[in-house]
Amino acid sequence: MGITDKAEAIRSGEEIDPIAIKKFLQENISDIAGKIAITQFPSGFSNLTYMIDMGGRQMILRRPPIGAKVKAGHDMGREYRVLKALYPVFHYCPEPLAYTEDTSIIGSPFFIMDKLSGIILRKDLPQELFFSKEQAKQLCLNLIDQLAHIHGINVKKAGLGFIGKPTGYVKRQVDGWSSRYRKAKTKDAPDCEKIMAWLKDKMPQDTDHPTIVHNDYKFDNVVLDPNQPEKIIGILDWEMTTYGDPLMDLGNSLAYWVEKDDPEEIQMMRTMPTNMPGALTRREILDYYEKKTGRSTRQFDYYYCFGLFRLAVIAQQIYYRYFHKITDNKRFAMLIFVVIALEKTALKIIESSDF
Questions:
Q1: For the chain, what is the mean pLDDT?
Q2: Which CATH fold topology does 133-352 show?
Q3: N-terminal to C-terminal alpha carbon distance within the chain
Q4: 128 in Cβ contact with 3 (< 8 Å)
Q5: What pLDDT band is residue 103 in, cutting at 50, 70 and 90?
Q6: How distant is the alpha carbon of residue 55 from its chain centre?
């Protein structure tokens, strides 16, 4: 099996034409030749990710999912521009190589970037990989160190001013994700109206220290050193990067963070080994982030609740495509249960919060 992330045969219905891709690469990337092989990374529910091996050079192709209608979350041109501006000041992101809006090639816009080779953690650790408690703790600390690094990048100096406007950021997020949920709601989904009302009523003021917001920062979007697996060597998936409140970013991250003592409905949502012995708890992560950045996390209930709701919206949008037979990918059928569990968890936060 091995411990590094492996691409597999391309899923039915998600094939791309290797001849067309080879022609595009030869026209847009210098010094590239040889036979081409294309495989697909099987994990994830958002943009589709393919591995291209051409003449021994490994690259990644990113394209929107089949049937997707959410442009902001699947804007290949924007993600490419983010990487072009970010790479010179933050070498942990992959180097972008080429982009096209020509849909005649594979049916959608796409871009090519260099492949970052290493370990990517999925739901459970592979048998070949072991973390001691000390290594697991250090990995979590390194994860937050890198998030603090991202939140410390000077957006304007990096030429990233186009990624968003921090004024009114929280309001736009709450309004936007609430609208997306209502549009994607299916008859078997919870209405989430109490959550949306609470997020609107308890909305904090704009932060006076806006930062880059990665918007999907989690274990399966970081690349680890195979020889020192607690060390982070790359950070992936910048498709939703924006400019706003860093605590929203942390709230989004911790919505994915399932601890070993969490209730059963939360355990069923776990997609990463955040429950391994030695891993930090959500509270410990907050304390370390506060110490590292100097930002108060006293009112974090709000940001965590938003993160849970946002994750429910993402799951519901994907489930919507399955429910309405836009895609027949059977992986998406179980996402309605994730939405229900996330709603239940968010309501518990609201009931226990003194914010």
A1: 93
A2: Aminoglycoside 3'-phosphotransferase; Chain: A, domain 2 (3.90.1200)
A3: 47
A4: yes
A5: very high
A6: 30
pLDDT at position 190: 97
**Residue 222, H or E segment:** strand 222-225
Q: Could you tell me how far CA 36 lies from the centroid of its own chain? A: 28
In DSSP notation, 165-186 reads --TTHHHHHHHHHHHHHHHH--
Q: Which residue has the tokens 């809006």?
A: 101
One-letter amino acid for residue 10 of the chain: I
> Helix 246-255 crosses helix 282-293 at what angle (to 10 degrees)?
160
Does the 18-114 domain belong in CATH 3.30.200.20?
Answer: yes
pLDDT digits (tens, 9 = 90+) for 250-306: 999 999 999 999 998 899 889 999 999 999 999 999 999 999 999 999 999 999 999
Look up the pTM and report it. 0.89
3-state DSSP assignment of residue 255: helix
Give the residues across from 244 on adjacent strands: 211
* Maximum pairwise Cα distance, the chain: 62
Q: Distance between CA 69 and CA 299 in Å, rounded?
A: 34
- Determine how many CB atoms are found less than 10 A away from the CB of residue 344: 15
- Who contacts 208 (Cβ-Cβ below 8 Å, separation ≥6)? none
HSE on the CB side for 128, CA within 13 Å? 10
Instruction: Give the amino acid at 62.
Output: R
The helix/strand/coil state of 163 is helix
Q: Which residues contact 142 (CB under 8 A, 6 or more apart)?
A: 230, 231, 232
User: What SS3 state is found at 15?
Assistant: coil
- Tokens 């991202």 belong to residue: 150
Domain residue ranges of the chain, discontinuous segments joined by +: 18-114, 133-352
